[in-house]
Design brief:
alpha/beta; 2 domains; 363 residues; VC0802-like
C-alpha cells in the first residue's frame, strides 16, 4: 500500500532517513512537510510506535487530478471505505487546500464527507455517522493546485509530536520532532557526549536520550480499530518491545533554575537519564563532542541590543573551545549568529511553528 507522513517543513530528509531505518523502505519528498513511501500494515504501525520526526502517518487510498469538486466527489465515491471504517464507527474529514481555487477547504471537506457516506451506503447499505469533534476515524484530504489525495489518518487526532512527557512547558519550547531532527543532523553517535547549553525545559537532550534508548511513543495507534488490519501482531510486538539500556553522556544546562527543575521532571516522565546543571552558556566550558541548541531570540530577552550581545558572547564561547565535533543551532535570527560565528557548513530553512527559522550546522 501507499503511505504518507507529515513532518516539519524543511526537515523532510530526516523523516526519509527515519522511515528507511524503521521499515527498510525508501521514501521521497512529495512537497514541503510531506513524504511518500510504499509500506505494509506493519510499517504503518512501526512508524506510529517509534517515529520521532513524524507528525502523522497516513494510509493513502486515492491520488488523482481533478477538474472541480464534482470530479473530486466522483473519484472519492469510487473508493471502498468499508475496508477502513466499521459500520458502528464515526468519521470526520480534515481537509487542507493549497493553491488558487474557487472553493474553500470547508467545501472540500463537505464534498469528500458526502462521497464517503454515499460510497459506504452503496457498499454496505449502512449510513456512516459523522462526528466532527471526536471521530473514531479521520479521513484526510489534501488539494494542491489541480491534484488531490485522500487517506486514512492512522495516527488519530493528536499528533505524534505530542510526546506526553512535557509536564513543564518552557514559554518558548521547541517541538520534540524538531529537537530530534536537530540531534540527527548533528551526526551524534551514542558513545559521544552531547549538550544543549540553553536547554530550557530539556526537550533536545531528552529527545536525544529517547532516540538512543529506542523509547517508543506511548499513545494508542488508531489503526488497531480498522477492519483492514489484524491488530494482534501489533499488540504482540508492543508487548514484547523493550527499550535499550545505554550509558549515555547527555547534558543540558541553563541559567534559569526554574527551567532546570522543569527539565528534570520532564526527563523523569520521559523515562530517560539526562544530567542537568545550572550554567551561563556564554561562559560554560564546552568540552563536549556535540552541541545542539535553540538559543533565545525573542522579546523575552529585552532589547534587540541584548539579543545581539548574547549571540556575540555565545558564538565567542563556541569558537573559544575547539573540542566539539559538531554544533547544530536553530534560530530565527540566523544573520545575527552568522555575523559572529561565521558562515555554516550547511543551513536548512525550516518552519518553526509559524515562524521562519534556519538550522545552521558547524563543525
Amino acid at each position: 500500500m501507499e503511505g504518507a507522513a507529515t513532518t516539519t517543513q524543511g526537515l523532510e530528509e530526516i523523516a526519509i532517513r527515519e522511515i528507511k531505518e524503521l521499515t527498510g523502505k525508501s521514501a521521497e519528498k512529495a512537497h514541503l512537510g510531506l513524504v511518500r513511501f510504499e509500506c505494509s500494515q506493519f510499517d504503518l504501525f512501526k512508524l506510529n510506535f517509534l517515529g520521532r520526526s513524524l507528525h502523522r502517518v497516513i494510509m493513502l487510498l486515492l491520488e488523482d487530478n481533478f477538474a472541480g469538486l464534482e470530479d473530486v466527489y466522483r473519484k472519492v465515491k469510487g473508493v471502498d471505505f468499508s475496508r477502513c471504517i466499521m459500520a458502528e464507527q464515526s468519521f470526520a474529514v480534515r481537509a487542507k487546500r493549497c493553491g488558487k481555487h474557487d472553493f474553500t477547504s470547508v467545501d472540500v471537506a463537505a464534498t469528500v464527507g458526502q462521497a464517503v457516506i454515499d460510497s459506504y451506503m452503496e457498499a454496505t447499505g449502512k449510513r456512516l455517522k459523522v462526528n466532527l469533534e471526536k471521530p473514531d476515524v479521520i479521513v484526510r484530504v489534501e488539494v494542491r493546485d489541480d491534484s488531490f489525495w485522500v487517506g486514512i489518518d492512522t495516527t488519530g487526532e493528536e499528533s505524534l509530536a505530542r510526546r506526553g512527557y512535557r509536564s513543564f512547558k518552557h514559554p518558548a519550547s521547541l517541538k520534540p520532532t524538531i529537537a530530534y531532527s536537530l540531534v540527527r543532523l548533528s551526526g551524534w553517535r551514542f558513545d559521544e557526549s552531547l549538550i544543549d547549553p540553553v536547554c530550557g525545559s530539556g526537550t533536545i537532550p531528552i529527545e536525544a536520550a529517547r532516540y538512543a534508548c529506542g523509547i517508543p511513543n506511548t499513545k494508542e495507534v488508531k489503526l488497531y480499530s480498522m477492519p483492514l488490519f489484524d491488530s494482534e501482531p501489533f499488540l504482540e510486538f508492543r508487548r514484547k518491545y523493550e527499550p535499550m539500556r545505554r550509558e549515555l553522556r547527555v547534558f543540558g544546562s541553563d541559567i534559569n533554575g526554574r527551567y532546570l527543575k522543569g527539565a528534570e521532571e520532564n526527563a523523569r516522565l520521559a523515562g530517560v537519564s539526562v544530567t542537568f546543571f545550572k550554567a551561563d552558556a556564554c561562559e560554560l566550558l564546552l568540552n563536549y563532542d556535540i552541541v545542539v541548541a535553540n538559543p533565545p531570540y525573542g522579546i523575552r530577552m529585552g532589547s534587540p541590543r541584548k539579543v545581539e550581545k548574547f549571540y556575540e558572547r555565545i558564538a565567542a564561547n563556541l569558537r573559544r573551545h575547539d573540542t566539539w565535533r559538531s554544533a547544530v543551532i536553530i534560530t530565527a535570527r540566523p544573520s545575527t549568529l552568522v555575523k559572529y560565528m561565521g558562515e555554516p557548513e550547511k543551513e536548512i530553512s525550516v518552519l518553526f511553528g509559524d515562524l521562519p527559522a534556519k538550522v545552521l550546522m558547524y563543525s
